[in-house]
């Protein structure tokens, strides 16, 4: 990680912070919620050492990137526009894209809106769903998982602590940490969110229904770029609401015709929990493309 450099780039009317390393074909790593570029700390040096120019931005609203206050500034048009601006900044017509969680959702939409800019896509945890014309996205999730679902609470709840109580003290703290992350790594996240706040995390989800109305894919829209999809078999999003059956069934493949699915032994934050396997899966996909 000592060879990772940092800069802020003007794109799509805002400043995005990026971490980058290496030279070669451009690989963009798009983090999820609630995350920053640091979630790719294992993949950045690995891919750079194998001959790639790796760029991991703090997405709009996160970390050291700008955080517009209005949820209306977090539509997929804005988010995809940010990524296109990064490609333009580096003078690249195409890039490989790797997305996790919400970053995967952005990557799916990038492939829908600007497929000519994506050489190949590796998405983790969140599969592609086309538009359900009868249900807005956030509303459908809330109906499936209930009012206690975090996306439901983000629509109305500002997570305000009682008077005289700091919000960090108001939230419940787990009694243990998983083996794939250290106290020092958690502190990196804690320090950054304490410094930057959490505007983006809330606004991404508050903008969900607007995204459905403005930019969601029409029913039957297909992803035509080459795709590898990785998911953990113990990911709650994979185990519930019929997602496992969907990913392993014919509908997903009909919407993403050039698709490879890899199910790993793991949970949601797969690129951290199973970082060696995920890094190898990414590299094996990239090596399928001839060098230019």
Please give a structural write-up:
- Residues 25-156 form the AB hydrolase-1 domain.
- GO terms for molecular function: hydrolase activity.
- This is Alpha/beta-Hydrolases superfamily protein isoform 2.
- InterPro entries: AB_hydrolase_1 (IPR000073), AB_hydrolase_fold (IPR029058), Epox_hydrolase-like (IPR000639).
- The chain is of the alpha/beta class and 292 residues long.
- The chain has one domain (5-287): 3-Layer(aba) Sandwich (Rossmann fold).
- The chain contains 14 helices and eight strands.
- It has helices at residues 43-48, 76-89, 102-113, 137-145, 150-156, 167-170, 183-196, 199-206, 208-214, 236-239, 243-248, 250-255, 270-273, 275-286, and strands at residues 5-11, 14-21, 26-30, 53-57, 95-100, 118-124, 227-232, 259-264.
- Strands 1-2-4-3-5-6-7-8 form an eight-stranded mixed sheet, with helices on both faces.
- It is globular and about 55 Å long.
- Residues 150-156 have low confidence and may be disordered.
Sum up the structure in keywords.
292 residues; alpha/beta; Rossmann fold; 8-stranded mixed β-sheet; 14 helices; globular
The share of residues in helices is: 25-40%
Side by side, the strands of the main sheet go 1-2-4-3-5-6-7-8
How does the helix and strand content classify structurally? Answer: alpha/beta
H/E element string? EEEHEHEHEHHHHHHEHHHEHH
Major sheet summary line: 8 strands, mixed
Distance between the termini: 27 Å
CATH architecture descriptor: 3-Layer(aba) Sandwich
Gross morphology is globular
- Classify the fold: give the CATH topology: Rossmann fold
Radius of gyration: 18 Å
Assembly status:
single chain
Number of strands: 8
Mean pLDDT: 87
Question: Low-confidence stretches at least 5 residues in length (pLDDT < 50)?
Answer: 150-156
Going by CATH, the homologous superfamily would be Alpha/Beta hydrolase fold, catalytic domain
Provide the domain count.
Answer: 1
Can you tell me the CATH class?
Alpha Beta
């Amino acid at each position: 990680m000592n060879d990772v450099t940092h800069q802020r780039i003007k794109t799509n009317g805002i400043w995005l912070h990026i971490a980058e390393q290496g030279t070669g074909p451009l690989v963009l790593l798009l983090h999820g919620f609630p995350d920053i570029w640091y979630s790719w700390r294992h993949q950045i040096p690995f891919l750079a050492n194998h001959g790639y120019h790796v760029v991991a931005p703090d997405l709009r609203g996160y970390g050291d990137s700008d955080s517009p206050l209005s949820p209306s500034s977090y539509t997929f048009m804005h988010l995809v526009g940010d990524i296109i601006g990064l490609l333009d900044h580096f003078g690249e017509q195409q890039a490989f894209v790797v997305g996790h969680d919400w970053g995967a959702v952005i990557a799916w939409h990038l492939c829908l809106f600007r497929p000519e800019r994506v050489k190949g896509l590796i998405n983790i945890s969140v599969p592609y769903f086309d538009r359900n014309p009868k249900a807005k996205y956030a509303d459908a999730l809330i109906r499936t998982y209930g009012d206690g679902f975090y996306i439901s609470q983000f629509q109305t709840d500002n997570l305000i602590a009682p008077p005289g109580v700091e919000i960090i003290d108001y939230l419940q703290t787990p009694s243990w940490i998983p083996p794939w992350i250290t106290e020092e790594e958690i502190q990196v996240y804690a320090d950054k969110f304490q410094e930057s706040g959490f505007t983006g995390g809330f606004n991404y989800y508050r903008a969900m229904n607007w995204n459905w109305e403005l930019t969601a894919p029409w029913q039957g829209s297909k992803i035509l770029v080459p795709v590898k999809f990785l998911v953990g078999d113990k990911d709650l999003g994979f185990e519930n609401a019929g997602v496992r059956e969907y990913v392993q069934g014919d509908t997903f493949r009909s919407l993403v015709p050039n698709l490879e699915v890899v199910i790993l032994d793991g949970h949601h934050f797969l690129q951290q929990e199973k970082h060696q396997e995920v890094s190898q899966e990414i590299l094996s996909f990239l090596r399928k493309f001839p060098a230019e």
